[in-house]
Amino acid sequence: MRKLMWFVIGYTAATAIGVYGTCGVWMLLLALFCAACAVGLFFCKTIWQKALAVSVLGCAVGLILQFGFDRLYLSNIRQLDQQTVVLSVELTDYSYSAGYGIAADGTATVDGTACNIRVYLDETVPLKPGDRVCGSFKLRCTVGSGDREPTFHQGKGIFLLAYSTDAPEIVQCDDIPVRYFAAVLRKNIKELLDQLFPSDVLGFARALLLGDSSLLSYEEDTAFQTSGIRHVIAVSGLHVSILFSLVFMLAGKRRGLTALLGIPVLLLFAGIAGFTPSVNRACIMQGLMILALLFNREYDPPTALSFAVLVMLAVNPLTITAVSFQLSVGCMVGIFLFSGRISSYLLDKRRFGPAKGRSLRARLTRWIVVLCL
Fold it and tell me: What pTM does this model have?
């Protein structure tokens, strides 16, 4: 029985209830009820009843943690909605053009609450990571407050939008801190791509390598979506698998060296891609595969996916609202549920002939089936 998988199923369901429903004291009552049911189910003998017990226990834990996250953190964020406050924001990424000015992501402490924040300025001077912006800002809560609907920013961990109300003071740093190395490397890669590729393919190159589709035209983006291959330019498991294969080959297929090189490379790649949910999911699962290879343990994909989901939701429960998270996890679940059956169907000798053995036809059949799945 995959205990972690069943636990995460309940935990994810509880997180979804807390995020999409109304978070209140009733969640604690429901958590107590789930905990009592879990205790009763643990005394049952069948494997499915024990799996249900673990899942219900995960639901109880998820409800309690979601209630605490909402009351101890998000409630403070909601109180800041539509407030005008004086902030000092340290930028964590490069600024970009946004309407009549620029925008940039950063971190700030507002009324004793530290959070990620996106600032909008009327400035035209580009800013870099490590720069500090100080001034008066009107805040907009992204997690929803009162009659205001939540925005997509909450899935990315950005809980406040700050709009400058006067000319801010900008304190530029002399040297960009090392902790922003991934952002600097991403900018350098973009500049290199700008030099190497002509304008008609530059947008595709950026999207393919970095997941940055900002330079794709509306027609190109629509064509990718209509053809069903939009995932090719959305950095996720495909890119991570290729990266791991490259590292594995460069390490001479040695386990220790693969782990020594692979895990830092995965962290760096996730940072370059902006720590999007799909990339985080893929990198965590790939990291677990590297550790299983290093310690000569069996790698179980459903358990690895469960661990990745648990980590991401523990860091930010609102990640569950991100479309990239939903599609990434949903695709993996679909692969686990149906890929084996589809593969068995296609490899049946009544379809394309014998697929076992070392003959050219058998190997070609297996290769095509695996490639299609």
Answer: 0.88
